[in-house]
Amino acid sequence: MEDIDFSEEQLLFIANEQKHIERDFKDNSVFKTKEIREIIEPWLTAVFQSEHLSLLIGSGLTNAISSMTKVTPICMPRIDFKCKYKDSIKKFADEEAKNMDRGKANFEDDLRVATELLKGFKILDDKKEAEVLNGEINNKLSSFLEEILKNEGYFFNSEKYQEAMDILKRFLISFSARASSRDRLNIFTTNYNRFIEYGLDEAGILTLDRFIGKIKPIMRFHRVDLDYHYNPPGIRGEPRYVEGVVRFIKLHGSLDWRFNNTEIIREPISFGSSINEEFFSDPLDNVVIYPNSSKAIETAYFPYSELFRDFSTAICRPNSVLVTYGYGFGDSHINRIIEDMLTIPSTHIVIISYDKVDGRLEKIVKKINKSQLTLLIGSHMADLQVLTDNYLPKSAIDRITERKHNILEKRGENKKGDTNKTQCNPVETSKFTED
Length: 435
Description:
By secondary structure, this protein is an alpha/beta fold. It has 15 helices and 18 strands. The chain has helices at 21-24, 33-48, 59-68, 86-99, 107-123, 127-156, 161-176, 195-202, 283-286, 304-315, 332-341, 360-365, 384-391, 399-411, 426-434; strands spanning 11-14, 17-19, 26-27, 30-31, 52-57, 185-189, 206-208, 211-212, 218-219, 229-230, 240-241, 245-250, 253-260, 263-266, 287-289, 320-325, 348-353, 373-377.
């Protein structure tokens, strides 16, 4: 088994073998997309039809969608506190980020450390310092949430909105269109925005999460495995699973989740709507968002303990596949769960990333058995449009193509070696999934 060469700009590693994209599949700065597809698409088609499939999405998806519509992605600059202990906050955030192999500290590190310091002031009953720091945190957090909402609005009103939305829908459908004999797709995200939810709604994909209710959805304190079924015509008492249903969890919360006494509710905010200042007043105590953690104990509080338990339960089981897109491996608690998953020999991870995330990718790959690993790394391999148009598999529940294939087989018009057949026929995929 050869070592992975991380010096290559475009990195493709499949089935214990690295393909040299720049050397063998590029001609005069143009990638040989068709030839690359013949390698990637059949493999991903087989991988995606594993018994259990989960998709972990990071900020890379938001950045990809934003760049397609010429919208500046949300950046999270360091928080420039003005309080007495501003240097201490920055220093401790730097040290924590370094200890957790995240590299440079970011907005979330500063926010987490400042929140911990605020708790210390409250414990010491230092009301003056607590009031000053609480005001700064709320101002910075409000500005951050407003920027997220503005970003949604810029995307919604952009000239290339429909083109980008079509690609996002096809991306999500490639994962969610699983045969009914397979477990539901689990989608997890560390993002606070609603791009994924909006794409799922536009694609007509039904979502299952912890919330119940329509007017004021309330988060359940325990998971109930509800699902969607239907009764086929002419058959009674044998309900079947509805296709196009996913389980969806936001691991770090969402800008439209709010604390309501002992409950957590989801307050409807239209995608791309104008900013409601009242909604973001005092966000530290009201809005349910949670920055990355440095210690597992930080996830011991509701609702984050329940959300991470969902993540662990979904991926840490035999015959499970986890696909990551745009996730930078900067969250230590998520990484530990992934490492636990890969101790099960029949599990597999597919990492799709635009870059090598400041060396973190190489560090995490060194801990993974290479036979359980697939890598699609680089500006070409992980480009959302290129990936969706060329490398992701076609829906595994394409019944029309299946019926057409069967009709041609009966007529003798489909011969072996027919060059017009797709490299990995969706019919073959459907048959495979039903076995």
